[in-house]
Specification:
Helix 2 runs antiparallel to helix 3, helix 3 crosses helix 8 and helix 8 runs antiparallel to helix 9. The protein is mostly helical. The chain has nine helices and no strands. It is 80% helix and 0% strand. It has one domain. The longest helix has 37 residues.
């Protein structure tokens, strides 16, 4: 399934996989959700060995910091329209965690998109936010790449790819479902308390 993608990346060298993954992570942080998990796994599968996994993790962490920092700086400098800032702050008011710690939870159940914009708008500590962002990201992607690496060792390449795709779909589905359930529960609890 990934053979054509592998061949294309390997034609130019695996460094292009890192550059492509970096760009996807920055786009995911700044513009729209781009399923970076899929690209991290795809990059890792080009050379599923320990040192390459560490390289993919470092690239993902740096890209997330760059993307969120750029969005943070843009929002901090240009400021969002008042109604958007008000909506963002109202949304954070609904959540159980109302500070930087939500960034860690966001790794399991994505409840705040465009994290850099929230960091700037809610006036959270930039340093603390980046620490949570990197810590949560490294933990999430380490587990994901470890799972993919184990599948690659246990099964032949084609079978491992199918299991990897299934695992990714399940992980992304559980993430979206838990986000949806969390949001509904928060909204219901707020309505009941009024």
């Amino acid at each position: 399934m990934f053979e054509g993608l592998y061949d294309w990346f390997l034609t130019y060298g695996i460094i292009y996989a890192l550059i492509g993954m970096f760009i996807i992570f920055v786009i995911d942080a700044m513009i729209f959700p781009a399923l970076p998990e899929l690209f991290a796994v795809g990059a890792f599968l080009l050379n599923p060995v320990f040192w390459w996994g560490v390289t993919v993790l470092i690239t993902a962490a740096v890209a997330e910091v760059v993307g969120n920092s750029l969005l943070y700086a843009l929002v901090k400098r240009k400021r969002l329209p008042k109604f958007i800032r008000r909506t963002m702050k109202k949304w954070i008011g609904f959540l159980f965690l109302k500070d930087e710690r939500i960034i860690l939870m966001n790794r399991i159940a994505p409840v705040i998109p465009f994290t850099g914009a929230f960091i700037a708008t809610c006036k959270w500590s930039y340093k603390k936010s980046m620490i949570y962002l990197v810590t949560g990201g490294v933990a999430k992607y380490s587990l994901l790449l470890l799972l993919v690496g184990m599948l690659n060792v246990k099964f032949d390449r084609d079978t491992a790819q199918w299991f990897t795709i299934a695992a990714l779909i399940i992980i992304i589905g559980v993430s979206f479902a838990s986000s949806y359930i969390y949001r509904k529960r928060i909204i219901r609890n707020k309505k009941e308390s009024i």
